[in-house]
Design a protein that fits this description.
Hypothetical Protein Pfu-838710-001; CHAD domain; 8-stranded antiparallel barrel; alpha+beta
Length: 512
């Protein structure tokens, strides 16, 4: 069993853990009324990582701690600058399997081993507000770190840490930060004890440097594309633990990240060699498909559920909500199993390795080191041309299955065009952003149309199941009719929305 908490904290350089007289009076700062001494704690933690420190490289921390009030295994995953999510598991002799799985997108299956041991003597204070409410915890730590790898050394230092209570906001941190700054107390240069320990014991410096690493030329198209690709790869790695834990919207975000990566790797083949990236794109498509069933079910559940709730009571015949729940439970269970099977596969691990290699050694093309404006504009216009062709073709078709398929293809082309503009924003600036917004409007109307197509297929299956069970199918037919009307409305709106989006193409947008 695991528990999860969100921690928001800042670390500061402390002159000495034995001398607390330097600590300024914080009463009256950010609603703090008193500072209450909570005594001292002795903490001992062994930090685990791969031989090449893959967890540390992605700002993640895995440790086995004894002492204090939260003894056990802790996996810390980055959320934002000051915040991390901490997943805790009970104390055991080996790394809990659940934490090993949550770290898998970072370790890529490499063996975890002890790398650093850190012992701390912690002087704890509570920052208390009105009514005795604890706003934050301030601790002054005397730290002793020892490398558990060959050729490592010992290190020691003192630091101060302020961690917000669950109900406190970041304004308190800002207020305390300002007060400490007035007295000459500065922020710590390391983001965590582990980061500092790795640096000061020599572990980080002892790593073998990959001589094959590729650095894009500054100010070039390749630098811009590689930066975007690396950002999306980093996002995919970060989303993996959330998907495994079934957190809201995680599957959607990971699937969208896959699509963005696939799209940009295709759009910018003039920058990144397609002989390397095309196989990666194929595997990203496989991953997206593996996540697709769960995401599609989420969308349908929300869509159909909201439409049923909006119906007048007199139009709901039979156990409609119960029928929807039975349908959802059966499909969700199978879809969830498919998601986890995908993430637990050796094929997924192989994809993560390919993505890591893409980050470390991007396959740059010879002409990609030039100025980015020309390269980025050409790529965006090429995607826009495909979108124009597909939209025109779809609009010429009569209503029906063939047109539904053509509109779906136009929607995918709209996404690719928008993702290309995202990657080009650094060099093309506001014009690319404006252009992307216009394309997004087209994508949204096409997306609503496709959602209606998918919903009608589901409604027909549910209606047939209800009818076979002797239940009234009137309500399901009514919902089907609503979806049909929504699709027809979108088809009527599309020409004007497309005209508005396409009248000012990217070349005109670049001129403002």
């Amino acid at each position: 069993m695991t528990t999860s908490t969100r921690e928001t904290e800042r670390k500061y350089e402390a002159p000495s853990a034995d001398d607390t007289t330097w600590l300024p009076d914080l009463a009256g700062v950010g609603g703090i009324e008193s500072v209450v001494d909570q005594g001292t704690q002795d903490l001992d933690a062994v930090y685990y990582d791969t031989d090449d420190l893959r967890l540390a490289d992605t700002a993640a921390v895995l440790r086995r701690r004894t002492g204090g009030t939260d003894a056990g295994w802790h996996l810390k995953l980055p959320l934002s600058r000051d915040s991390r999510e901490e997943v805790q598991a009970p104390l055991s002799d080996t790394v809990p399997e659940v934490l090993r799985e949550l770290a898998l997108s970072r370790t890529r299956g490499a063996k975890l081993r002890p790398v650093v041991q850190i012992a701390s003597t912690r002087d704890v204070r509570q920052l208390v507000g009105s009514g005795g409410t604890v706003l934050a915890e301030l601790s002054i730590d005397s730290v002793r770190a020892e490398s558990l790898l060959a050729h490592g050394t010992l290190a020691s230092w003192s630091e101060m840490e302020i961690e917000l209570a669950p109900d406190s906001g970041p304004a308190l941190l800002e207020a305390v930060d300002e007060r400490l700054g007035e007295t000459g107390i500065g922020r710590a240069h390391s983001s965590s004890k582990l980061a500092r320990a790795l640096e000061e014991t020599g572990v980080a410096a002892s790593r073998v440097v990959d001589e094959r690493a590729v650095v894009p030329a500054p100010g070039s198209a390749e630098e811009e594309v590689v930066r975007y690709v690396n950002y999306r790869i980093h996002a995919l790695v970060n989303l993996d633990p959330a998907v495994r834990r079934g957190l809201p919207d995680a599957v959607h975000q990971m699937r969208t990240t896959c699509r963005r990566l696939r799209s940009v790797l295709r759009s910018f083949r003039s920058v990144l060699d397609r002989e390397v990236t095309d196989p990666v794109r194929a595997e990203l498509k496989w991953l997206s498909n593996g996540l697709g069933a769960e995401r599609d079910q989420e969308v349908l559940r929300e869509r159909l559920g909201s439409k049923i709730e909006a119906l007048p009571v007199e139009l709901v015949f039979g156990a409609v909500s119960a029928r929807l729940q039975v349908w959802d439970v059966g499909n969700t269970s199978a879809a969830r199993a498919r998601t986890l099977e995908t993430l637990d596969s050796t094929r997924y691990l192989a994809l993560l390795e390919r993505l890591a290699t893409l980050t470390e050694r991007p396959p740059l093309c010879a002409k990609a080191a030039g100025q980015p404006v020309k390269v980025m504009t050409k790529a965006v216009l090429k995607e826009y041309g495909r979108l124009t062709d597909r939209t025109a073709y779809a609009l010429e078709l009569p209503p029906g299955t063939e047109r539904d398929t053509a509109l779906h293809e136009a929607r995918k082309a709209a996404k690719k065009t928008r993702y290309a503009t995202e990657a080009a924003r650094d060099s093309l600036g506001k014009p690319a952003k404006r252009f992307g917004k216009r394309i997004k409007a087209v994508q949204q109307v096409l997306g609503e149309h496709q959602d209606s197509v998918v919903a009608r297929k589901a409604l027909r299956r549910i209606a047939l199941a209800a009818q076979a069970a002797g239940e009234p199918s009137f309500t399901w037919g009514l919902l089907y009719g609503q979806e049909q009307a929504a699709a027809e409305r979108g088809e009527r709106e599309l020409p004007s929305i497309w005209t508005a989006a396409s009248q000012r193409g990217l070349r005109k947008a670049l001129k403002g």
